[in-house]
């Protein structure tokens, strides 16, 4: 389990951790199942930034931009890169090998750039609405802002539930090498169930503390899982399986999906 924690936090965040002693099975599966827990790192950093921004009197929209920037910095923009590459691959060609070759390149094409812009705009504008709603449920003051900012943690944890869903048993890798090959199909049903329950508990508790409706967290989890499932099915049809880029795309889409759910339910 220690190796799984090291692999999860070392791969999914930009913060330095000791390297795992082994990445042989079952470590990859356990690490991907712990992805929502690793989301506490960018979520916690975003929470502090949101709290500080609100206390300084910044508009919630400005705070939302700062939080999304912290999310990107906390992962070295790894997930955004995956989103861009996945969009480029899906739109490049109906030929599987051609699509995978486009995704393997380091540059971003028009589809990738447009998709990143759209998703980031959606994340920022919906987070702005969530923060406004959360603040309205508290009496104000530093304690109210501190609690309202907890919505950021709700989103960060919920979005990373996309990772074990993508890496669940039965989902093949698109390539024989790379991160996707190492983790594809590695999360068994018991681990996936545990990850979902853990995410549901954290999302419910933090969302309620933030001042959102009690069902907001559970709905965000559900919507994230559904959005991720759509992405997985598309990846399997177009690419024959998943890649590390698809995992990154799942997280960014998960952030947008979770925030949309919080806006609708609050």
Automatic annotation (TrEMBL):
Principal localisation: membrane
Enzyme class, first EC level, given as a word: transferase
Pathway this chain belongs to: Cofactor biosynthesis; adenosylcobalamin biosynthesis; adenosylcobalamin from cob(II)yrinate a,c-diamide: step 7/7
Coiled-coil ranges from the UniProt annotation: none
Pfam families: CobS
Cofactor: Mg(2+)
Keyword entries, A-Z: Cell membrane, Cobalamin biosynthesis, Magnesium, Membrane, Transferase, Transmembrane, Transmembrane helix
Its EC number(s): 2.7.8.26
Stored InterPro entries: CobS
MF (Gene Ontology): adenosylcobinamide-GDP ribazoletransferase activity
Function: Joins adenosylcobinamide-GDP and alpha-ribazole to generate adenosylcobalamin (Ado-cobalamin). Also synthesizes adenosylcobalamin 5'-phosphate from adenosylcobinamide-GDP and alpha-ribazole 5'-phosphate.
Record protein name field: Adenosylcobinamide-GDP ribazoletransferase
Species the sequence originates in: Kineosporia corallincola
């Amino acid at each position: 389990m220690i190796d799984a924690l090291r692999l999860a936090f070392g791969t999914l965040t930009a913060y330095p951790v000791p390297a795992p002693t082994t990445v042989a099975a079952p470590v990859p599966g356990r690490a991907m199942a712990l992805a929502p827990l690793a989301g506490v790192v960018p979520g916690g950093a975003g929470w502090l930034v949101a709290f500080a921004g609100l206390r300084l009197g910044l508009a919630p929209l400005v705070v939302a931009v700062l939080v999304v920037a912290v999310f990107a910095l906390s992962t070295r923009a790894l997930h955004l890169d995956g989103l861009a590459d996945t969009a480029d691959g899906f739109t490049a060609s109906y030929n599987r090998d051609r699509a995978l070759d486009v995704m393997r390149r380091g540059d971003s094409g028009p589809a990738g750039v447009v998709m990143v812009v759209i998703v980031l705009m959606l994340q920022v504008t919906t987070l702005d609405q969530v923060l406004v709603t959360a603040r309205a449920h508290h009496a104000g003051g530093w304690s109210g802002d501190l609690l309202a900012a907890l919505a950021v943690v709700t989103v960060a944890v919920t979005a990373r539930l996309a990772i074990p869903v993508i890496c669940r048993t039965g989902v093949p890798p698109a390539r024989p090498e790379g991160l996707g090959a190492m983790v594809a199909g590695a999360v068994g049903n018991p681990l996936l169930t545990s990850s979902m329950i853990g995410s549901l508990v954290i999302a419910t508790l933090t969302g309620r503390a933030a001042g959102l409706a009690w069902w907001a967290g559970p709905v965000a989890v559900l919507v994230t899982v559904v959005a991720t499932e759509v992405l997985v099915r598309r990846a399997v049809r177009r690419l024959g399986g998943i890649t590390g880029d698809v995992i990154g795309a799942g997280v960014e889409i998960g952030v947008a999906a979770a925030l949309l759910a919080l806006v609708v339910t609050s």
